[in-house]
């Protein structure tokens, strides 16, 4: 067993990944934006949300695809790796990891190749007709649930009843092909060209229809995060209100969720 990585050290490693990622994107002229809790942190706290230990960014699909190709040809650094479901068992989006570390998530089986990471999600185009958009989001939500079913950890659950049900279903969950789910979800999200769409969303792992937003909101601005300037969407207020409501108000203590995991340095 390697040396345990605590909450504060995990944050420092994640911030380092974000800094290196942003420098790479600037060099390669790739668009990215802080998103979700990381964006709230930048706007409300100028850094991490005090109880949070997670970093999320989004990239327009054309930039996301170019990033994946470029980073595989020329890695950001010798200890930084972009996990891609085409090559390893992982999520249907990119996890940029520090491969000097090892991580075990509490609910999903991902530790075969996972380390301290930041999440990178694609922004995709949407159809103009609301009925078709709703159908697309429903399909995406079903595939996300199917992915979670195929990858959940034995003997876990939010309560005793859910844990029992999950344990009974566990043998069947291992028969579901994780790669195929990722492929279907990715293909679904790419159905509408980003550049030719007026509205966009992070479909692959997002909040569903309420993320639908004008592409104009994703013009670049800058926000401070832990003493660094990173790209944020110019329309951050609209984006965050649609996802979270009154995001500038601190949530009740019982709703302040921390990403649960165990992490350690790999043995030399």
Word description of this protein:
The chain is of the alpha+beta class and 268 residues long. The chain contains 7 helices and 11 strands.
C-alpha Rg (nearest Å): 18 Å
Average pLDDT score:
91
The strand count comes to 11
Described by strand count, sense and barrel closure, the largest sheet is: 7 strands, mixed
Strand content: 15-25%
Low-confidence stretches: none
- N- to C-terminal distance: 11 Å
Number of helices, counting only DSSP H or I runs of 4 residues or more: 7
User: How helical, in percent, are the residues?
Assistant: 25-40%
Shape: globular
- Secondary-structure element string: HEHEHEEEEHHHEEEEHE
Structural classification: alpha+beta
Q: Which features would summarize this protein structure in a list?
A:
seven-stranded mixed sheet, 11 strands, 268 residues, 19% strand, two-stranded antiparallel sheet, single chain, 7 helices, alpha+beta
């Amino acid at each position: 067993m390697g040396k345990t990585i605590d909450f504060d050290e995990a944050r420092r490693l994640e911030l380092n990944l974000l800094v290196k990622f942003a420098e790479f994107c600037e060099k390669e002229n790739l668009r990215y934006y802080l998103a979700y809790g990381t964006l709230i942190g930048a706007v409300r706290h100028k850094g991490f949300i005090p109880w949070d230990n997670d970093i999320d960014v989004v990239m327009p699909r054309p930039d996301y695809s170019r990033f994946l190709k470029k980073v595989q040809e020329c890695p950001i650094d010798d200890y930084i790796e972009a996990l891609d479901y085409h090559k390893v068992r992982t999520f249907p989006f990119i996890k940029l990891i520090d491969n000097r570390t090892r991580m075990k998530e509490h609910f999903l089986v991902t530790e075969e190749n996972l380390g301290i990471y930041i999440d990178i999600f694609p922004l995709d185009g949407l159809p103009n007709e609301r009925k078709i958009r709703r159908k697309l989001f429903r399909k995406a939500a079903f595939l996300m649930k199917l992915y979670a079913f195929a990858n959940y950890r034995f003997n876990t659950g939010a309560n005793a009843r859910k844990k029992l049900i999950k344990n009974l279903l566990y043998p069947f969950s291992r028969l579901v092909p994780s790669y195929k789910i990722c492929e279907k979800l990715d293909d679904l999200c790419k159905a509408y060209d980003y550049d030719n769409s007026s509205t966009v969303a992070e479909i692959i792992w997002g909040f569903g229809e309420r993320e639908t937003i004008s592409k104009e909101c994703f013009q670049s601005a800058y926000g401070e995060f832990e003493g660094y300037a990173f790209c944020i969407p110019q329309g951050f207020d609209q984006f965050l209100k649609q996802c979270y409501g009154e995001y500038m108000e601190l949530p009740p203590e019982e709703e302040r969720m921390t990403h649960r995991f165990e992490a350690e340095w790999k043995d030399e």
